[in-house]
């Protein structure tokens, strides 16, 4: 669906440029955008590689495992329907730990694995369970301690203090996570009430 929306926007822009006589501006913008995108990507490789390397060292040193153990009570509160010894709980804890440490590359497959495991517990395979909705909300708005990609972009653009965003990112992501959990619980209560009336 997103692909279709982007394609529609792209094609409508080209058609509009053709009818208004601004096709040369569109061609220049496409080429300039492609050039700046390549320059940004090449510049980000070193900074992202550094941060991901540090995070990988932390992961292999046991930081993710240590953090998972500390997050277990939080996960039990957020996912009461998931048995503590089920593989889904392990994947959820690993996903939450990776997100906290800013290891997005590791968090994504762990989140997908957690969803697959939660699907095995789901009685209605056509509808997302409460635990699946909670995981999606928490994963999307996850608290981030080290925003590696933002730091790398700030380094690429020669920021005097590339890590200055760590505090504000932590506050913003914490507020986002609290809001996501509150909305998840609110909609879950509304859904239960609606089902009770039916």
Task: Outline the structure in words.
- With 198 residues, the chain is mainly alpha-helical.
- The protein has helices at 2-20, 23-60, 63-78, 87-100, 104-121, 130-140, 148-156, 166-197.
- It is globular.
- The model has no long low-confidence stretch (mean pLDDT 83).
In short:
The protein has helices spanning 2-20, 23-60, 63-78, 87-100, 104-121, 130-140, 148-156, 166-197. By secondary structure, it is mostly helical.
Task: Jot down its keywords.
79% helix, mainly alpha, 198 residues, 8 helices, globular
Q: What topology does this entry show?
A:
Blueprint: H1 2-20, H2 23-60, H3 63-78, H4 87-100, H5 104-121, H6 130-140, H7 148-156, H8 166-197
Helix pairs in contact: 1-2, 2-7, 3-4, 4-5, 5-6, 6-8
Count of DSSP helices? 8
User: Which residue ranges are poorly predicted, with pLDDT under 50 across at least 5 consecutive positions?
Assistant: none
Give me the secondary-structure category.
Answer: mainly alpha
C-alpha geometry: globular
Largest sheet: none
* Estimated radius of gyration: 21 Å
Q: Count the strands?
A: 0
Succession of helices and strands = HHHHHHHH
Mean pLDDT: 83
Strand content: under 5%
- For the record, give the distance between the C-alpha atoms at the N and C termini, rounded to a whole number: 32 Å
Helix content: over 70%
């Amino acid at each position: 669906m997103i692909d279709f929306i982007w394609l529609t926007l792209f094609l409508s822009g080209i058609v509009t440029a053709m009818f208004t006589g601004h096709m040369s501006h569109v061609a220049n913008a496409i080429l300039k955008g492609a050039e700046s995108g390549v320059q940004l990507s090449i510049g980000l490789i070193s900074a992202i590689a550094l941060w991901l390397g540090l995070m990988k060292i932390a992961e292999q040193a046991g930081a993710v495992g240590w953090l998972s153990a500390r997050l277990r009570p939080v996960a039990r509160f957020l996912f009461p329907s998931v048995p503590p010894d089920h593989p889904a709980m392990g994947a959820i804890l690993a996903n939450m730990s990776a997100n906290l440490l800013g290891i997005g590359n590791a968090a994504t497959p762990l989140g997908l694995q957690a969803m697959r495991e939660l699907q095995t517990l789901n009685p209605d395979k056509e509808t997302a369970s409460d635990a699946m909705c909670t995981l999606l909300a928490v994963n999307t708005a996850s608290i981030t301690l080290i925003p590696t990609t933002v730091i790398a972009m700030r380094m690429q653009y020669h920021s005097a203090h590339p890590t200055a965003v760590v505090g504000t990112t932590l506050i913003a992501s914490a507020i986002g996570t609290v809001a996501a959990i509150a909305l998840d619980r609110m909609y879950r209560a509304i859904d239960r009430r609606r089902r009770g009336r039916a």
